[in-house]
């Protein structure tokens, strides 16, 4: 499953979406999906080719890096990599409509039974969030896990529980979790926060979001 982010501008239209693409799906092609998306959202017909192009570019980029198949890797459970998904602490930062969700938590990037989709389904249900949040949460997790896995591959890491020699990357990887509980101070920073944004806050958040997307793109190219 490959996390895909769409950012399409065409004439007066701006289309944004996130999704997870199953590269082994033999039924729905990229072109067919793009056409259905244009029809569903009543977008101009030429946008179908733009959507297909962005999806294909990201799938090609994903295939260009030989990411590890977690099911085929033997990892020392005492030294398993625990991925802290964002260095700044806000792992989830999602805005849908006027609702803004932020949260942070640890995620084991090499555990085969960890499913972002199942986690997102349970997480969203507990908070009373709809389907759009479920897909956005799953995408956000996969996108960030993918980023760390690609970074580890880029520095030649063997995914064997050994030392990570890149200083910046090593600082972003947490040690194994031995105690599930948190202190009061830690708990205050590791909990879902759901706010309703005003129109001014939504505009400000949109500007910050665009800056963050540009930063992530630069990081991706650098790694």
From TrEMBL:
<dbReference type="InterPro" id="IPR006939">
    <property type="entry name" value="SNF5"/>
</dbReference>
<keyword id="KW-0805">Transcription regulation</keyword>
<feature type="region of interest" description="Disordered">
    <location>
        <begin position="199"/>
        <end position="223"/>
    </location>
</feature>
<keyword id="KW-0804">Transcription</keyword>
<dbReference type="Pfam" id="PF04855">
    <property type="entry name" value="SNF5"/>
</dbReference>
<protein>
    <recommendedName>
        <fullName>SNF5-domain-containing protein</fullName>
    </recommendedName>
</protein>
<comment type="similarity">
    <text>Belongs to the SNF5 family.</text>
</comment>
<feature type="compositionally biased region" description="Basic residues">
    <location>
        <begin position="214"/>
        <end position="223"/>
    </location>
</feature>
<keyword id="KW-0539">Nucleus</keyword>
<dbReference type="GO" id="GO:0006338">
    <property type="term" value="P:chromatin remodeling"/>
</dbReference>
<dbReference type="GO" id="GO:0000228">
    <property type="term" value="C:nuclear chromosome"/>
</dbReference>
<feature type="compositionally biased region" description="Basic and acidic residues">
    <location>
        <begin position="204"/>
        <end position="213"/>
    </location>
</feature>
């Amino acid at each position: 499953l490959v996390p895909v982010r769409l950012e399409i501008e065409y004439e007066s239209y701006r289309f944004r979406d996130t999704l997870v693409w199953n590269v082994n799906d033999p039924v729905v092609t990229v072109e067919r999906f793009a056409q259905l998306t244009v029809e569903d959202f009543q977008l101009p017909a030429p946008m179908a080719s733009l959507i297909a192009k962005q999806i294909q570019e990201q799938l090609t980029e994903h295939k260009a890096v030989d990411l590890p198949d977690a099911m085929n890797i033997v990892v020392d459970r005492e030294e398993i990599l625990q991925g802290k998904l964002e260095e700044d602490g806000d792992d989830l930062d999602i805005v849908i409509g006027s609702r803004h969700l932020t949260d942070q938590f640890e995620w084991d990037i090499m555990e085969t039974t960890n499913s972002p989709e199942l986690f997102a389904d349970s997480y969203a249900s507990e908070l009373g969030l709809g389907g759009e949040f479920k897909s956005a949460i799953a995408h956000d997790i996969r996108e960030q896990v993918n980023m760390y896995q690609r970074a580890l591959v880029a520095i030649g890491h063997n995914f064997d529980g050994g030392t990570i020699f890149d200083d910046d990357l090593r600082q972003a990887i947490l040690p194994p979790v031995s105690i599930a509980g948190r202190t009061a101070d830690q708990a205050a920073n590791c909990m879902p926060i759901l706010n309703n944004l005003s129109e001014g806050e939504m505009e400000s958040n949109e500007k910050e979001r665009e800056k963050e997307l540009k930063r992530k793109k630069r990081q991706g190219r650098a790694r």
